[in-house]
Write a structure and sequence with these properties.
Blueprint (H helix, E strand, L loop, with lengths): L2 E2 L2 E4 L4 E5 L15 E7 L8 E2 L1 E5 L2 E6 L1 H5 L4 E10 L5 E12 L5
Parallel strand pairs: 1-9, 2-9
Antiparallel strand pairs: 3-7, 4-5, 4-8, 6-7, 8-9
């Protein structure tokens, strides 16, 4: 079961989220050989999505967007999730939640 974590993005800023993956015993999962992916949607059934740039560094997932990418987001509430994919193509959702995008005042 994926961990629930709500996140916040300030429109027009660089964002970087770091996610440590733990098993049921709260031990850190070895992510060697895994890839990661994450998307943001207005609601779960929305046809449109925005992808985070994802990677695995020091056995942790990084999810990021540039200021140019977040500037294009319409302020409001979204849903997101992040998955890991094993070398054998097994997919596991590791985190999900609500993303709130706050509007930028400074251009």
């Amino acid at each position: 079961m994926a961990r629930q974590k709500n996140i916040f993005i300030d429109q027009g800023t660089d964002v970087n989220f770091i996610i440590a993956v733990h098993n049921e015993e709260e031990e850190v999962v070895d992510l060697t050989g895994y890839t990661s992916r994450a998307k943001l949607r207005k609601h779960w059934a929305s046809a449109n999505s925005v992808s985070f740039t994802c990677g695995i560094v020091d056995n942790q997932i990084t999810m990021s967007m540039t200021s140019g990418e977040t500037d294009l987001l319409t302020p409001g509430r979204y849903v997101y999730d992040c998955e890991i994919v094993s070398s054998g193509n097994a997919v596991t959702r590791v985190v999900e939640g609500i993303c709130t995008v706050s509007p930028s005042v400074t251009y």
